[in-house]
Write a structure and sequence with these properties.
- The chain has one domain.
- Helices cover 0% and strands 25% of the residues.
- The chain contains no helices and 3 strands.
- It has a 3-stranded antiparallel sheet, with no helix packed on it.
- The termini are far apart.
- The chain binds zinc ion (ZN).
- Zinc ion (ZN) binds at residues 6, 8, 11, 27, 29-30, 32.
């Protein structure tokens, strides 16, 4: 399977897309993900547990 990424030279705007594992930037112009913007969430569920190793 091949994943298509945004190839716009200048993206007018981006928005955040989220799945179970992380989030990434999407281009509003072509509605494709922007390569290299995927960031995995840390290993907790949105809660800030400090010393929870
Ligand atoms: Zn684009």
């Amino acid at each position: 399977m091949e994943q298509e990424f945004c190839k716009c030279m200048r993206t007018s705007s981006i928005y955040d897309e989220i799945d179970d594992w992380g989030h990434w930037d999407m281009c509003v112009d072509c509605n494709k993900p922007i390569e290299g913007t995927y960031e995995f969430f840390n290993h907790y569920d949105g809660e800030d547990h400090c010393n929870d190793y």
